[in-house]
Amino acid sequence: MPSLKDLRNRISSVKATQKITKAMQMVAAAKLRRAQTAAEAARPYAERMEAVLANVAGGLTSGGPALLSGNGRDDVHLLVVCTAERGLCGAFNSSIARLARDRANTLMAQGKTVKILCVGKKGYDLLRRQFEKQIVELIELRSVRQIGFDNADAIGKKIIAMFEAGEFDVATLFFSRFRSVIAQIPTALQIIPAQVPAAASGASAASYDYEPEESEILATLLPRNISVQVFRALLENAASEQGARMSSMDNATRNAGEMIKKQTIIYNRSRQAMITKELIEIISGAEAL
Predict the structure, then answer these.
(1) Cα(191)–Cα(189) distance, rounded to whole angstroms?
(2) Cα–Cα distance for residue pair 178/239, rounded to 1 Å
(3) Rounded Cα distance, 138 and 116, in Å
(4) Fewer Cβ atoms within 10 A, N terminus or C terminus of the chain?
(5) pTM greater than 0.70
(6) Quick one: pLDDT at residue 202?
(7) For residue 164, what are the CA distances in angstroms to 70, 105, 119, 135, 263?
(8) Burial letters 77-103, b for 16+ CB under 10 A, else e
């Protein structure tokens, strides 16, 4: 049985941890407001970009650029896994890594070649245990205090350069879509070849006359769309990370409170038992005299 000093040390240690988790919860709540606003503001632009691409692609008479129609092969897949740089955010990182891991295992079982581009240190740490040979590069955003379009544009250009060099045939983006503080949805989005909405058809796009030609417009819009989708993924991840961290730190704070109560009860019982034992010894000694 631990001594009273050990119990006091345990209680003080848990109280210190509780203060840290409470502070982290408040910081995450403050960051969540800004991250959620940025993520929600980026959604209409990204969705409208997809609609414009669908309308322009609907008027094509040929296959279009390679970023839209692909290179005709489906042998090498690039998985762009976007996660956080830090932990202590519940199952946020592991849920994205699990979705990417399942997709990689499925593709490899079909005889496909899988390459992984990790954006974020935690995704790299989770995936390298099983797919160390498949990971081609790690892009860290640890030094970036606030995600900007320049960060996403650099990643998008790297993906396009790899595609033009023939390093892969299909690219899929993995991130977590923010729904609420307690709900983040792991999402897989194919970005090369671009997926246009099924609602778009040639009949609806035929009423538009484009100048320059549709192929020239797509040659400009498609690379931009990849950077936009990566930027959207990074913003969704930022909001999801803070929401998950806020929820996990709230649970940790409440668990620490329950642990303090249990340890305090044990401490009081042990202290009372020692006092009772000392009283019994005193009374017994007095009676013996």
Answers:
(1) 6
(2) 6
(3) 9
(4) C
(5) yes
(6) 44
(7) 11, 26, 20, 19, 62
(8) bbbbbbbbbebbbbebbbbbbebbbeb
pLDDT tens for 272-287 read: 988 888 888 888 887 8
| CA 110/CA 113 separation, integer angstroms | 9
Task: Name the phi and psi angles at 248, rounded to 5.
Answer: -70, -40
Displacement of CA 92 from its chain's centroid (Å): 5
* Residues 92, 244 contacting (CB under 8 angstroms): yes
Task: For 225-238, write each residue's pLDDT tens digit.
Answer: 999 999 999 999 99
Kindly name the residue from 7, 54, 57, 89 that is annotated as catalytic.
89
Q: Is 89 a catalytic residue?
A: yes
* Alpha carbons 104 and 125: distance in angstroms, whole number: 16
Closest CA to 214 of 55, 80, 36, 1: 55
Instruction: State CA 248 to chain mean position distance.
Output: 14
Cβ–Cβ under 8 Å, residues 119 and 202: no
Q: Are 32 and 242 in contact (CB under 8 A)?
A: yes
How is residue 221 written in tokens? 């819009």
* CA dihedral sign, ordered 215, 216, 220, 221: negative
pLDDT in tens, 27-61: 999 999 999 999 999 888 888 888 888 878 776 66
- Choose among 81, 69, 233, 224: nearest CA to 156: 224
Tokens of 48: 């409208």
Distance of alpha carbon 129 from alpha carbon 142, whole angstroms:
21
End-to-end CA distance of the chain: 32
CA separation, residue 261 to residues 10, 32, 194 (Å):
12, 31, 55
Q: Record the tokens describing residue 57, joined without a space.
A: 């692609």
- % of the chain beyond a pLDDT of 90: 56
- Among 124, 229, 242, 236, which Cα is nearest to 176's? 236
